[in-house]
Design goal:
The structure is a homodimer. Chain A has an 8-stranded mixed beta sheet, sandwiched between helices. A 4-stranded antiparallel beta sheet of chain A has the order 12-13-16-15, covered by helices on one side. In chain A, strands 1-2 form a two-stranded antiparallel sheet. Helix content of chain A is about 40%, strand content about 15%. In chain A, helix 10 links the parallel strand 8 and strand 9. Chain A is an alpha/beta fold. In chain A, helix 6 packs across helix 12. The interface between A and B is large, with 105 and 105 residues.
């Protein structure tokens, strides 16, 4: 029973304590009280009943109430001093600012925007088998902070895989596992900035994110033109940059491949400028007409920092990538990676090692190549059928294609009409660093994630949306 | 048969083509040739046999050789021009710099250094069950780039869990999943720097990494003293800083808990200075004498940026953490997280959501608390028995304890003697920002990962090593 001299303010509020529940009575009372204070149902300054009175009212022991009160005093929700009643504290958070609604991503019925792979084809069962093996076999070290460069077993398997599939020359000692291209490149840019590098050449047109990441790390991106043979190495040399980030296997967004002459010239440039080539190995393994060209890194491991990931090979959501570092940069990249909490989940790393060792990645890519090749054909056919004045650039590869629009067709007009028709597309200008009046408009279309009928329908809508 | 006018230089080198293997003959030949060039066994300028001659020598079709040659020309390992023989290119990477041996981490028989949990107790089977559920249930979006703040389902579960277990007030809209405290704090520091913040108060003594991360992001760490009640708020106010990073639940390395008065004062300071408190929620849930104090964030969500992770709760190797952001910072943190490839593996995120929803984290912590409590007792007993002049600071909590050495005992002397005896320990001075002559030496001992007998033996060795 409540002491009559002590108003039981809590009586207006319903306290339900569950004697059968998994939480103790003390935990329940504490949770309930904290919640009342926080939401303002118990306002600042409110005097609480004495522990004795509340215990009697609730039919519980006084010790339980005292425990809850003292916990909430310790946390700052209540105040109490010797002899004075317990009250709701002033800084009780009860006047929390209302929360703004989160930004909603635009949704399209057909999303042709990004260069992601077919996520529905992700081999969940096979990946699970590798995760299971990893959880069974992962050494204890792997569950701790581990080697900041990543799990040794994964770095070993990457050496074998990238040597075989990409013609790269990885050394496990100089391989740094990261969470994907973006993290790897960000870490590299910060390390370069620390060494005093101020500018980095980027391809133009080129992936907008190259520029964003470089800028974020304090480097000035310097656009260097790309033509049908890839980056213009003479223009690169003239830029005076010491570093350049390139996409040699399948240039984004133009879709061209760096020619043999340019590859040699680029490596010569690196030697002459005493510079560094950053090789973005995006969607390099998806070539449909011939075997993909090997990685530049294999030719000059001390001149090339190679960054790749499972994003297009498997799924970006796995957050697994790798940096093949020149030996002179490994230390700095390792330090930066540790500070960036770099090497993704140890379990995922060991799972990827297992997946590679079982040949599952090869199997998956072998399965996906004809799928993507057919989707690309659907896209090309649709362009030919519906957009006679447009043209598709680049080699048969990857999960995106650049469609150059006919003369006088405005990219923005097409893109907004497409959005209204439910088709999300990305304009080429997003990936142009210099906006030239003379440049033709274009759309960078990602076809990786869409079935052939859906792709056909999307292209039809797109064509009619002009 | 080789053309007599064409020296078959490859004859000296053994080519073994496996007709039964999974790789095609062309792939095998290409791999072999690339390797010969790269290792320098085929030197720059070496003239290769004609495709006809090599095909005859190897007993394979000429098309296979042509395919391999043209691939390696495209990659830059070989050069060829109309009419001239194919040669090993100059930039062939055959003069690769030798690679330095990687740094070897020092290994100790007994490692008392870091505050990691008991990794052997990691519930692998239960985690696997959640991974399996995640792989079955994860939406396709989750395998793509997803929401840069992290999987919605995990942000929902974190709201429930952290509300319940930490007295925090998380809003899913303002929760940003990250790869751990380090990444979360690094991202926050970069965002603050971008807003024009130049200095951040850090606890002294305090975790050395707070300082390192802040400095790396371009902020100046300003040490503010910690006493038996936690950070000295008057000194903080006098510092003129607008931001402070604190460990209220269990101060590292002193082991004290921020007192109720100081909690209130700290929140008042944040209001008066219009400042931000960064709450590092390290090992907050491991309190052995009473329920842990709730998170500061629950009291003032717009004044506190709360960062936590599964590192001590489960295992650092999972790379999963969370930032509860004030609503006004969420946008910037989200952008930074996207650029840092923040939200760890989507599969792991959904797995953690499942793990939380099943109550597995509660179960694991309930199981571990008595284990750690006993280990801490072993450590305290050992100090009392062998080091009468030393004293252990802090409350019964967490996976580390600070042992203050007796007057006149040199921290470095003890640490190096211990290392020689096979015991790795970390000196307190590593976590002191200002080195005071008057300060007593101390050791920060991590006891989480060691069984009681091992801990006893380690402490015995440590005591005899003085």
């Amino acid at each position: 029973m409540a002491d009559p001299g002590e108003p039981v303010v809590l009586g207006e509020l319903l306290v339900v304590l569950d004697r059968e529940g998994s939480a103790t009575l003390h935990e329940q009372l504490e949770l309930w009280l904290r919640d009342q204070v926080r939401t303002g149902r118990l306002a600042t300054g409110t005097r609480l009943p004495s522990s004795r009175a509340l215990a009697a009212a609730l039919g519980i022991s006084r010790g339980v109430v005292l425990e809850a009160y003292s916990q909430l005093v310790a946390e700052g929700y209540l105040t109490a001093s010797q002899g004075a009643p317990t009250r709701v504290a002033a800084t009780s958070g009860s006047e929390r600012a209302p929360v703004a609604a989160g930004a909603l991503a635009t949704r399209h019925a057909y999303d042709l925007r990004s260069g992601v792979p077919d996520l529905a084809a992700f081999p969940r069962e096979r990946w699970l088998r590798s995760v299971r093996a990893a959880l069974r076999e992962a050494p204890l070290d792997a569950l701790g902070d581990g080697d900041p460069r990543g799990e040794p077993r994964l770095r070993d398997e990457l050496m074998r895989y990238l040597g075989r599939a990409r013609g790269a020359a990885p050394e496990p000692e100089h391989t740094v596992v990261c969470a994907g291209f973006t993290q790897g490149f960000a870490i590299l840019c910060r390390s370069l900035r620390d060494r005093g590098v101020e500018r980095i050449a980027v391809e133009d047109p080129g992936w907008a994110r190259h520029r964003a990441i470089a800028e974020r790390a304090g480097l000035e991106p310097v656009p260097v033109p790309v033509d049908g043979d890839g980056i213009d190495v003479a223009a690169l040399a003239a830029s005076g940059c010491e570093c350049a980030v390139v996409t040699p296997a399948h240039q984004f967004p133009s879709g061209v491949v760096l020619s043999a002459e340019r590859r040699a010239a680029l490596l010569d440039w690196a030697d002459e400028a005493d510079g560094l080539i950053v090789e973005d190995d995006y969607d390099s393994e998806l070539r449909y007409d011939r075997v993909a060209v090997g990685a530049l890194q294999g030719l000059a491991p001390e001149r090339v920092c190679h960054i790749g990931s499972v994003s297009v090979r498997l799924a970006p959501g796995l957050r697994l990538g790798w940096v093949l570092s020149p030996s002179w940069l490994t230390g700095e990249l390792t330090y930066e990676t540790a500070l960036a909490e770099g090497p993704a989940s140890a379990v995922a790393q060991v799972a990827l090692a297992d997946f590679l060792a079982r040949g599952e990645l090869d199997r998956h890519l072998r399965r996906m190549r004809p799928v993507y090749r057919r989707r690309r054909s659907v896209l090309l056919d649709a362009v030919a059928r519906w957009w006679p004045r447009a043209s598709v650039l680049g080699v048969p590869a990857g999960v995106f294609a650049l469609v150059l629009l006919g003369e006088g067709v405005e990219e923005e007009t097409v893109a907004s009409a497409a959005a209204r028709a439910g088709v999300g597309v990305e304009g080429l200008s997003a990936h142009r660093h210099r906006q030239l009046d003379s440049a033709r408009g274009g759309l960078v279309l990602g076809f990786g994630g869409m079935s052939e009928p859906a792709l056909e329908r999307a292209m039809e809508l797109l064509a009619s949306a002009r």
